TrEMBL record:
Protein name from the UniProt record: UPF0145 protein GCM10023329_34250
PANTHER family attached to this UniProt entry: UPF0145 PROTEIN SCO3412 (PTHR34068:SF2), UPF0145 PROTEIN YBJQ (PTHR34068)
InterPro entries assigned: UPF0145_dom_sf, UPF0145_YbjQ-like
Family under the similarity heading: Belongs to the UPF0145 family.
Top-rank taxon: Bacteria
Originating species: Streptomyces sanyensis
Length: 121
């Protein structure tokens, strides 16, 4: 797998800026819309679970699970951006991710932040 398969972030051309900070240098917040989130739950496929079990005995990265988690995180981020845009935001501040096990059958990933309208200062 190449490095691009392990990365994340926004795709070019997206109209909603997403940042982990509480503000954006050079911009001012004109309006706070409120909390937005993107949520997804992914189940693990049997082959990757068996492979992960074997790999955990000898140590090392679980590449199949890593790739699945990256895809899941990116899907949660895309849903967050879609929700923010639908509510009229052009930015999401203070984005965070929450990852939990979902009833021992999968992984839940939630991206959340504060949707706002920003303008250049």
């Amino acid at each position: 797998m190449g490095i691009e398969e392990y990365g994340g972030g926004q795709n070019p051309g997206v109209d909603v800026l997403v940042v982990t900070t509480d503000d954006v240098p050079g911009y001012r917040v004109e309006r706070v819309i409120g909390e937005v989130f993107g949520l997804t739950v992914r189940s693990r496929h049997l082959g990757s679970q068996i492979g992960a079990g074997l790999k955990s005995m000898v140590g090392g990265e679980l590449r199949g699970l890593t790739k699945t988690l990256v895809e899941t995180r990116n899907q949660a981020m895309a849903r967050l951006v879609d929700q923010a845009a639908a509510r009229g935001a052009n930015a999401v501040l203070a984005i965070r991710f929450d990852v939990t096990e979902a009833a021992d059958v999968g992984t839940e990933v939630c991206a959340y932040g504060t949707a706002v309208v920003v303008a250049q200062a």
